[in-house]
Specification:
This protein is an alpha/beta fold. Helices cover 31% and strands 20% of the residues. It has a nine-stranded mixed beta sheet. The chain has a two-stranded antiparallel sheet with strand order 7-8.
Length: 282
């Protein structure tokens, strides 16, 4: 990652401290957790599926030690790639390592967002070597659909894709990969490795995490070990999850506090859509 941008991010990631990772329910979060385990020796101790959170027996329950991974936490340390501001004046989480927070992207600037994965953010932040194989590089781009901006018919998307891959992340090699392939070739990868939006989820079954993701095959191509924790996850917190449309006519006037107070996580999932969870009391 170019130092100019790395220096703008919260610097807690440099600390020599054993943090506890919060895994969410998809491959972007899991692969990012595995990078953090490899480079920082941080372990997954929590699993968050937006409706609840489980914890291992080792978890300290100290929120200062928790690090969200691919989760738009409103408070506390997290690595994230979501747009989190509805209005330009909304407060943001100062501990969120997120290009969209860094660039003050809000709903009105939604199409200027960082449209890459959390995985690419952490991969670049810790300067990991890229996968050796062409397919491995394609998988890295396919996770969270980073490739979509390159093949988009909109100039904003194309510019953002090149800017972040080349100027920020310094992944010119990955940008060149996009030029060697067609969009439909990436679509095939979702089926091959069960990375689709619906069939590639991580779920908890009686406290044990399971997934249809082809983790062994993905590990081989990405040159990094991908595996689910074998621990049992015990009920820790419960949340109410809400996702709804926002009025287009109030794009520049609606603030986060107009929609929800004190959310645990909140992401603008489309220019006119928001998804958030609030912790249940009791």
């Amino acid at each position: 990652m170019r130092e100019l941008y790395k220096d703008k991010l919260p610097q807690w990631f440099k600390e020599d401290k054993r943090y506890e990772l919060i895994l969410s329910d998809d491959i972007d979060s899991l692969a990012s957790c595995m990078v953090l385990k490899e480079v920082k020796n941080w372990n997954i101790e929590y699993f968050y599926n937006f409706k609840g959170m489980g914890k291992t027996k080792r978890a300290t329950e100290n929120v200062d030690n928790q690090v969200g991974v691919d989760i738009a936490l409103c408070n506390g340390k997290t690595f994230d790639n979501h747009v989190v501001k509805l209005h330009r004046e909304d407060e943001v989480n100062p501990l969120s390592i997120n290009f969209n927070v860094m660039e003050e992207i809000h709903r009105g600037k939604y199409f200027q967002k960082y449209c890459g994965s959390t995985l690419l953010l952490v991969w670049s932040l810790f300067d990991l070597p890229l996968p050796k194989s062409e397919e491995g590089k394609m998988i890295l781009l396919a996770i969270d659909s980073t490739q979509s901006g390159y093949y988009s018919t909109y100039d904003n998307d194309k510019r953002a894709n090149k800017h972040y891959l080349c100027n920020v992340l310094e992944f010119e090699e990955l940008y060149d990969v996009l030029g060697r392939h067609k969009s439909h070739e990436f679509a095939k990868l979702y089926n091959k490795y069960s990375m689709g939006r619906h069939n590639g989820k991580i779920v908890a079954d009686k406290g044990k995490l399971t997934t249809n993701l082809k983790l062994d095959e993905l590990s081989k191509e990405l040159d990094i070990s991908l595996e689910l924790p074998t621990d049992l996850f015990y009920n820790y917190k419960e949340f109410d999850l809400i996702e709804h449309e926002l009025a287009y006519s109030r794009m520049y006037s609606t603030k986060r506090d107009d929609v929800v107070s004190n959310p645990y996580s909140l992401a603008v999932t489309g220019q006119n859509y928001v998804k958030y969870s609030t912790e249940r009391e009791g």
